[in-house]
Amino acid sequence: MIGEGCFKIPSDDYHADPCPEPSMSRGTVVDLLNVPARAFYNHPRLNPQPKEEKDESKFDLGSAAHDLLLEGGKKIFVVTGFDSWKKDAAQEARAAAREVGKIPLLQKQFDLASAMTKAAKAEIRQCEELGIQDLPSEGRAEMTYIFNDEGTWERCLVDWASNDETIILDYKTTKVSAHPSRFSRHIGDMQYHIQHAWYRRVVQGVTKKRAKFVWIAQEEEPPYLCSFMGIDPMHADMAEQQVESAVKIWRRCTETGVWPGYPRRICYASATPWSLAEWEAKRQEINDSLGIAEPTANEQLDAAGL
């Protein structure tokens, strides 16, 4: 177990929760805002479960590019002399690499990830607002921040933070468009705004500095275009309110030992305004086709005795 501060630890140790007591992570915040019972079930310390086996048969370009861009490919092992994993020797080399925590790649896969990384570095250098020319020398990658907020342990694993800890970068790859308008919707769909607020909160708790958070979104198809995304003040304020609410829920649940699920009552679905309007238009269309005249407002009042 480790205490408050900034550390370089293996990702498996981070996800197992290395804090002195069960701690909150970004995933915990998302679960708590959904339903506390899920937060309890998914927490590695509150509800320990056997580690799930990962399906590593599929080449993950995003993981390879992530390691190359942020850590110089330290986790990558290139298996040469094969065009595929079909041969026994290739499969044995791949298994051996995984046994020691490496990402096994064929040469052609490594070349693809390298091309993607080269494009990302060039785009980062051209973003004047970031002011970053060289990630390794200007910051640290894959750092764990742990903050004790009045007895509530909070943690996050940051892709990259500048040496002065005033900029946080989070690198995400996408198989679809990384255009800002498209990725903006993705931020909402995936609740990335929670990550924005949570990371800034934990890093500030440790460093006493308010960092700027930026996503680098990169397409996995040539020419591997990137966009740089933040969220506006109103969106950021909403995210911070959500995080504060999640912390309150966590404290209540850990104090009482009660992690509520969904309501224990019958709930009723309401028709949306647009579905009502759509049906009204359809009903009128049906009546017109059948030659049925709708009663006027006065006729409806008369029928009601008004």
Give a quick precis of the structure.
The protein is α/β, with parallel strands linked by helices and 306 residues long.
What does this structure look like?
By secondary structure, this protein is of the alpha/beta class. The chain folds into 3 domains: 183 residues, Lambda Exonuclease, Chain A; 73 residues, no CATH class; 31 residues, no CATH class. 47% of the residues lie in helices and 17% in strands. The strands form 2 sheets. Strands 1-4-5-6-7-8 form a 6-stranded mixed beta sheet, sandwiched between helices. Strand 4 and strand 5 form a beta hairpin. It starts with a strand and ends with a helix.
Topology summary:
Elements: E1 5-7, H1 11-15, H2 26-34, H3 36-42, H4 61-71, E2 76-79, H5 88-99, E3 103-106, H6 107-126, H7 135-138, E4 139-149, E5 152-162, E6 167-174, H8 180-189, H9 192-207, E7 212-219, E8 226-229, H10 233-256, H11 273-290, H12 297-303
Parallel strand pairs: 2-3, 6-7
Antiparallel strand pairs: 1-4, 4-5, 5-6, 7-8
Helix pairs in contact: 2-3, 2-10, 4-6, 9-10
The whole-angstrom Rg is 26 Å
Please give the order of strands in the largest beta sheet. Answer: 1-4-5-6-7-8
CA-CA gap between termini: 75 Å
CATH class of the largest domain: Alpha Beta
* Order of helix and strand elements from N to C terminus: EHHHHEHEHHEEEHHEEHHH
> What is the second-level CATH architecture of the largest domain?
Alpha-Beta Complex
Estimated helix fraction: 40-55%
**Which geometry do the CA atoms define?**
globular
